[in-house]
């Protein structure tokens, strides 16, 4: 027998046979559950089973206020204790009404992330969310990598600090590769745009030269220091002529 009912917004706490159950509002209405009412074992089992459906349906819909993949929703419901049959039933329903749509999720994700992440990184993250490789590959076709990489390089060129051409070029490539953009696009676009840009390496070389002098002039002989500095500057990618010019200029001062 139902001995007590305490109502809440979405459910009621029902005391039945000295046990407490959270019964969803839909079930309360459907089975006309009131204080003093009795049910046989089969009826109460049916009520609890149906109640589970309405409970997980309500919780899932709250979760689906933001986009989720099918896999994310399945894991969410499973972690809450829903069984596979119930999860399958809810997923079929949500797919029918387009509450979950992995293709739409992929499109939205790519649209939002494509200027922050390249195709390979996007692909890895979507796979981890349970999206099929087929859906991912089909939607990755819509990314205009040429345009995105070009805009990123332009942005970096406009705000570059005093770096030599070689260091700037390599750092730019490495950053784009880490973000998951395609290496062939990166190398082609970066090299082309860098070669079309004038870099005043002499100022940067002179700055690096002075740093090396201050750090090592009391640690090496004159001959050792000269060779050491040339080697360090070569390693930074400066041209031989520019290096020789700066060294000669500094010696004359």
Automatic annotation (TrEMBL):
Main localisation: cytoplasm
Entry keyword NAD: no
UniProt entry tagged with the keyword Cytoplasm: yes
Biological processes, Gene Ontology terms: regulation of DNA repair
GO cellular component: cytoplasm
InterPro entries the record matches: Regulatory_RecX, WH-like_DNA-bd_sf
Record localization: Cytoplasm
Top-level taxon in the UniProt lineage: Bacteria
Keyword line: Cytoplasm
Sequence similarity: Belongs to the RecX family.
Function per UniProt: Modulates RecA activity.
Protein name: Regulatory protein RecX
Biological source species: Haploplasma axanthum
Higher taxonomy: Bacteria, Bacillati, Mycoplasmatota, Mollicutes, Acholeplasmatales
Gene name of the record: recX
């Amino acid at each position: 027998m139902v001995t007590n009912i305490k109502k809440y917004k979405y459910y009621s706490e029902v005391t039945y046979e000295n046990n407490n159950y959270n019964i969803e509002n839909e079930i309360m209405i459907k089975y006309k559950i009131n204080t003093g009412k009795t049910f046989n074992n089969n009826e109460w089992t049916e009520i609890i089973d149906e109640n589970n459906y309405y409970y997980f349906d309500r919780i899932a819909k709250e979760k689906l206020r933001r986009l989720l993949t099918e896999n994310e929703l399945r894991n969410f419901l499973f972690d809450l204790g829903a069984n596979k049959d119930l999860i399958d039933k809810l997923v079929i329903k949500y797919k029918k009404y387009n509450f979950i749509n992995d293709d739409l999720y992929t499109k939205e994700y790519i649209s939002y992330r494509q200027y922050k992440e390249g195709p390979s990184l996007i692909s890895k993250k979507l796979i981890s969310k349970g999206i099929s490789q087929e859906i991912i590959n089909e939607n990755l076709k819509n990314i205009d990598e040429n345009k995105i990489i070009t805009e990123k390089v332009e942005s970096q060129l406009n705000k570059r600090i005093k770096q030599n051409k070689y260091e700037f070029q390599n750092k730019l490539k490495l950053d784009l590769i880490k973000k998951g953009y395609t290496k062939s696009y990166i190398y082609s676009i970066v090299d082309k745009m860098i070669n079309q840009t004038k870099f005043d390496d002499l100022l940067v070389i002179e700055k690096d030269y002075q740093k090396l002098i201050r750090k090592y002039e009391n640690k090496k002989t004159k001959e050792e220091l000269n060779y050491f500095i040339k080697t360090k500057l070569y390693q930074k990618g400066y041209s031989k002529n520019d290096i020789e010019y700066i060294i000669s200029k500094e010696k004359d001062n």
